[in-house]
Design goal:
alpha/beta, Alpha-Beta Plaits, 2 domains, six-stranded mixed beta sheet, 7 helices
Length: about 220
């Protein structure tokens, strides 16, 4: 599986051009892409990265990738990130790596977003295999969980008695649905719950998907 992830990561980095401002995603697959971007910088590419997590920031610094912030760059040329699930309409579930809020912000301000996955992440319907991460403020989070479960899921606090805390100081509930047949509607419903900061449904943001398969990397571009 790591070979397929590396295959997809290398193919995605082929889209990187000298002088670009890049969004640097978070997660095991994206980590491989950031390594490849570091090689480009070493070879003389003038690139600037905007990391989506403290973890990615640390990795990028060790590779010598120049970094900036979303405020400083304004718009990004390209973001490379991973996903936990991808459906045929390029809708995604992201956030098992815990960086969904910053990932969505960086994606929103990117001209293009390339998602890299292995073929196990490609699904017909979102949510069948993977829980949907929802980032919530700590205040009243148990009441927020109840409101989320009223939408038809089982919500589990990530980390349990020692909750996982995001880079933004929030908690994450992993919400398991039988399926998410209407991602747009679910995104709206979850967003209306007080206490919810952001959820892991990424809709209308990915412009291309690079899929690592045993037959080689496959590129799907949104028309």
């Amino acid at each position: 599986m790591n070979a397929l992830k590396l295959q997809a990561a290398r193919k995605a980095v082929e889209f990187v051009e000298d002088g670009m401002v890049l969004g640097l995603g978070t997660g095991s697959t994206t980590r491989l892409a950031v390594d490849e971007i570091g090689k480009l910088v070493k070879d003389g590419y003038r690139l600037v990265g905007v990391p989506t997590s403290i973890e990615t920031e640390k990795q990028a610094r060790t590779l010598g990738i120049p970094l900036s912030t979303l405020e400083e760059v304004g718009r990004l040329d390209l973001t490379i990130d991973g996903a936990d699930e991808v459906d045929p309409q390029f809708r995604l579930i992201k956030g098992l790596g815990g960086a969904l809020l910053r990932e969505k912000m960086v994606a929103f301000y990117s001209k293009r977003e390339i998602i890299i996955v292995d073929d196990s992440k490609v699904v017909d319907v979102l949510g069948v295999k993977t829980p949907l991460p929802v980032e919530v403020v700590q205040f009243g989070h148990r009441r927020t969980r109840t409101a989320l479960e009223e939408l038809g899921c089982t919500a589990k606090l990530r980390g349990g008695e020692r909750p996982f805390v995001t880079d933004n100081g929030n908690y994450i509930y992993d919400c398991k649905f039988d399926a998410i047949n209407d991602p747009e509607g679910m995104d709206s419903e979850i967003g209306s719950v007080p206490g919810v900061v952001e959820n892991g449904l990424f809709i209308g943001l990915a412009t291309a998907i690079v899929i690592g398969t045993e037959r080689g990397a496959i590129i799907r571009e949104r028309i």
